Amino acid sequence: MNDAPDRKLWGAAEAYESYMGRWSRLIASHFLLWLDAEAHGRWVDLGCGTGALSRQVMQTCRPSSLLGLDLSEAFLQAAKHSVPEAEFMLADATDTGLPNAEFDYAVSGLVLNFTRDPRATLREMVRLVRPGGRVALYVWDYAGHMQIMRSFFDVARAIDSGAAAFDDGINAPICRPGPLRRALEEAGAVDVEVTAVDIPAAFPDFDAYWSPFLGGTGSAPKYVAGLSDDVRNRIRDAVQAALPTGPDGEILLAVRAWAVKGTVAE
């Protein structure tokens, strides 16, 4: 594997941590409280990334075992460092190769819309869980109150129509309450519930907000990496002007994820 920055989506652990990983951890703790899992369960985390959700599972849910799966070696190495008590394996979330009904809980954080087939991922999650076990995940509210991204893309699309090709508010329609519920039910889960998980996202100044967009990891950073200096600077200045900024330069945004959970039918 080439370790030089290649700007591939979700390809660099440090860039992802700066851009979204830190917010994922905060969402994960609220998500797990809502899931209300029993202790000593067998868990699998599909698309575990740098281990944000896996770490929270290990710290708060007292699992008997935890297996994290991802397609990025760089992410898996970061996850192993963050959660040494868990096991991690290179695997595709749509076709893990693991046995049926092997787990009590299958979870996923902020990755469903980045898998090659989100509905196949949901079917795989249901397949991996025993009857009576739980399947649960969360995704960003890209089209609504994930303001870190919406503040960027609403401005970028007004300047460059090409930004729409990277805007998950347009390109990930499954990341909304109705589609999420229907997709998990169609995958075979019952008693499906959806809820909003909200947290604040504070930045001390504009540079703290903008710098993660330069890392090349994630939809918006990938888009930014392909821009000319002129267009990038125009978008940067317009985003800065549009953001709600306090008297000392601080920026406070809302961050929302949609969480969905269901039970595997007996």
From TrEMBL:
Keywords: Methyltransferase, Transferase. SUPFAM superfamilies: S-adenosyl-L-methionine-dependent methyltransferases. Residues 44-136 form the Methyltransferase type domain. InterPro entries: Methyltransf_11, Methyltransf_Superfamily, SAM-dependent_MTases_sf. The keyword Methyltransferase applies. Gene3D superfamilies: Vaccinia Virus protein VP39 (3.40.50.150). CDD domains: AdoMet_MTases. It holds the Pfam family Methyltransf_11. GO terms for biological process: methylation. GO terms for molecular function: S-adenosylmethionine-dependent methyltransferase activity. This is Methyltransferase family protein. It comes from Deinococcus yavapaiensis KR-236. The lineage of its organism: Bacteria, Thermotogati, Deinococcota, Deinococci, Deinococcales.
